[in-house]
Amino acid sequence: MIDLLVFPGDVVTTSKKNEKTRISSGLIQNGDNIQSSKVGFVRKDLRKKCLWIDNHQNRYIPSVEDTVIGVITERHSFQYKINIGAPRDAILDALSFEGATKRNKPNLQVGDLVYCRVVVANKHMEPEVSCISLHFKKEWMTGEALFTRLEDGYVFECSLEFARKLLSDDCFILNCLGKYIPFEIAIGLNGRIWVKSSRIVLTIVITNCLLNSQHINNNKRMEQMVRILLDR
Question: Nearest-CA neighbor of 133 among 150, 151, 148?
């Protein structure tokens, strides 16, 4: 059923019965079946073995292992409240950073941006997020951790569909921009994108390129757009 239109309640199956697949946005486990919880197209990331429903939804509903960008809204002794654009704020444990201890942990402030992953997503509980990666084990103090506080740069919002498109391995606009200019980017499946480059003006140009690319389907025209904005 990959790339086919489904409706709420439709059973979605993978091509191989014994294949292990992680389900994400728009899918729920119901016994031995995987069912759709919303209207959209079934998509699959072969490399990550992830299955989800793709549509034009603007409201973010957390799913386990989603990468998100959140804003700290409350500080407490051993945890933070963080806005990830979901119906309820998520909880971030103060020790949920690689290498963090009670004596040595990040000191986040209200308003700080954090790149993290969803570890608990349940309609009966508050979402929980973590800055500990399952695969990338750089400690937070090195400044090289995958999930961490995002400093400087610029954050903007986009559709959930576009955010997931940017995370694909064959995303043309990111590969194109990378040929002309070095930059850092963090992509949240909650529709938040953070960009940072060596100069503010370049960060703005990159942001405009990304936003404009949503309305261009031709790769040649997309690269022309990038060149024009960079040459200004």
Answer: 148
How many secondary structure helices (H) and strands (E) does the chain include? 4, 16
pTM: 0.82
Q: Are residues 78 and 41 in the same domain?
A: no
Number of independent structural domains in the chain: 3
Q: Quick one: DSSP state of residue 142?
A: G
- CA dist 72 and 131 (Å) reads 13
Amino acid at 114: V
List the domain range (segments joined by +) for residue 162. Answer: 154-231
159 and 214, same domain (yes or no): yes
Q: How far apart are CA 48 and CA 11, in angstroms?
A: 21
Q: Report the percentage of the chain scoring pLDDT > 90.
A: 58
Q: Tens digit of pLDDT for each residue in 57-72?
A: 778 889 889 999 999 9
**Count of C-beta atoms within a 10 Å radius of residue 13:** 13
Q: What is the mean pLDDT of the chain?
A: 89
The answer to whether position 173 is within a domain reads yes
User: Which ranges constitute the DSSP H helices of the chain?
Assistant: 160-166, 172-180, 200-213, 219-231
Phi, psi for residue 9 in degrees, rounded to 5 = 100, -15
